[in-house]
Design brief:
Layout: H1 3-18, E1 25-29, E2 41-47, E3 65-71, E4 74-80, H2 91-94, H3 96-103, E5 108-117, E6 127-134, H4 163-175, E7 181-187, H5 196-204, E8 209-211, H6 215-223, E9 227-237, H7 248-272
Parallel strand pairs: 1-4, 1-5, 5-9, 6-7, 7-8
Antiparallel strand pairs: 2-3, 3-4, 5-8, 6-9
Helix pairs in contact: 1-3, 4-7
The chain binds hypoxanthine.
Hypoxanthine binds near residues 115, 116, 188, 194 and 251.
Length: about 270
């Protein structure tokens, strides 16, 4: 067994000793989106700091715990707080919890994030269902020795985001008149927000929204055979005429304001997975 699988087995054993639930749906809550967690009827919470080999989140707005419970009476495992490359974690550390989720039995992963928009048809507060991504501006988390027990050396990425789940989400969106957008997420390292020229570049190469998370998690999940659904809340407009700046506070606030829509969507989505 490799060092990685040894560590994962220790992690998983620790978690399983703490909680006997066996959810098949995993949820990752993005920046400013921790309140969705309050809709989860909690069975067991485990702070990341307690879990062997888990990195520890440092960003304001991330509480950093694993939550076992039920969302709309469906058993889920949620990560309140995620790990970002810009915090100094290696890409392998960023995706470590995703791999642990796989070994814990997760089959479908719902990811959420705050993102900047470069699509003129989007506005702050819009929900954008991610139908594809560009990860070339970040480090691929699969670089290094392949963990064959998890997945292939050269995994296909032609459909990283599950089409059936996207269709189900769009139906729910229509029911609530959320006017869901659909688009391509460009992953970047951060922690700087983009320059005006960079936002234009992102638009020119096919991005609709841009953010500092999600793509590495998606790659690791797809590698391990987990179905992925991901959604962005537009928190700021990258391409704009106004002479203003983008702040982390405004991103958190916009995410918080749009969160009830996201919560409703996830609550209904778990019923049809
Ligand atoms: N760029 C990158 N990451 C982000 C942004 C952005 O504009 N907004 C929220 N996360």
């Amino acid at each position: 067994m490799s060092e990685l699988t040894d560590k994962l087995n220790e992690t998983v054993k620790y978690i399983q000793n703490k909680c006997k639930e066996k959810p098949i749906i995993g949820i990752v809550l993005g920046s400013g989106l921790g309140n969705l967690a309050s809709e989860i009827v909690i069975e067991k919470e485990i702070p990341y700091a307690e879990i062997p080999h888990f990195p520890v989140s440092t960003v304001v707005g991330h509480s950093g715990k694993l939550i076992f419970g039920t969302l709309n009476e469906v058993s889920v495992l949620a990560m309140a707080g995620r790990f970002h490359f810009y915090e100094g974690y290696t890409p392998a550390q960023v995706v470590y919890p995703i791999r642990a989720m796989k070994l814990l039995g997760i089959e479908t992963l719902l990811l959420s994030n705050a993102a900047g928009s470069v699509n003129p048809h989007y506005k702050v507060g819009d929900l954008v269902v991610i139908n594809d991504h560009i990860s070339l501006f970040t480090h691929n988390p699969l670089i290094g020795i392949n963990e064959d027990s998890l997945g292939l050396r050269f995994p296909d990425m032609s459909e990283p985001y599950d089409k059936k789940i996207i269709a189900a989400a769009k139906e729910i969106g229509e029911k609530y008149n959320y006017q869901l957008k659909e688009g391509v997420y460009m992953g970047v390292t951060g922690p700087t927000f983009e320059t005006r020229a960079e936002y234009k570049l992102i638009k020119a190469v096919g991005g609709d929204v841009v953010g500092m998370s999600t793509v590495q998690e998606t790659i690791a999940a797809v590698h391990a055979g987990i179905k992925v659904f991901a959604i962005s809340i537009v928190t700021d407009l990258g391409i704009r005429e106004t002479d203003d700046i983008i702040t982390h506070e405004e991103v958190l606030l916009a995410a918080k304001e749009a969160e009830p829509k996201l919560t409703r969507l996830f609550k209904e989505l778990v019923l049809v997975l």
